[in-house]
Amino acid sequence: QSLWSQGPSDVGLIKGILPVQVRPKTEYWPSEKAFCDIKQALTSNLALALPNYSKPFIEMVDCKDKYMTSVLGQQHGDKLRPIAYFSSKLDNVARALPHCVRAVVAASMAVEASAGIVLFHPRPLRSHMQWLLYYCKPI
C-alpha cells in the first residue's frame, strides 16, 4: 500500500499522518478549498514537531508517476510524529527509467532533501516497496 492513499481528493496524506486535532472534517472538497485546508493543516503548530536529536529519525518515501514524496518523522509514544514533508519532481532522465529504478532515485532524493535536518544521524527508510529497502541497507 502506498504512503498516501488514493482518493478523489488525496486526503490520505492528511488522515494518515496529521494528528486528529488538525485533520479536516470532510473527505471531499472542491479543489481550491482542499488546497487551502491542506496548506493550513500542514503549517499549523500541531502538524509538525521539532526534531529531537536524542531520538531516531524515520523517513517514509514514495514515488508515484513523476514525483518523490517523503515524510521525515520520529516516534512519539505509539505514533510517528512528522517533522518535515518533502516532495520533488523527478528530472527527465529519472522519469524515463523503469519504475523500480525511479523508486531508488526517489529514495536518494528524499535522503538528500532531509539531510539538513537529520544532519549525520542514521535514519531507516520505510517504503511500501520492500525490495527498495533491501537495496538501500548500508553496506
Automatic annotation (TrEMBL):
Top-level lineage group: Eukaryota
InterPro entries linked: DNA/RNA_pol_sf (IPR043502), RT_RNaseH_2 (IPR041577), Viral_Replic_Matur_Polypro (IPR051320)
Reverse transcriptase/retrotransposon-derived protein RNase H-like domain location: 31-113
Gene3D superfamilies: 3.10.20.370
UniProt xrefs under Pfam families: RT_RNaseH_2 (PF17919)
SUPFAM superfamilies registered for this protein in UniProt: DNA/RNA polymerases (SSF56672)
Protein known as: Reverse transcriptase/retrotransposon-derived protein RNase H-like domain-containing protein
Source species: Denticeps clupeoides
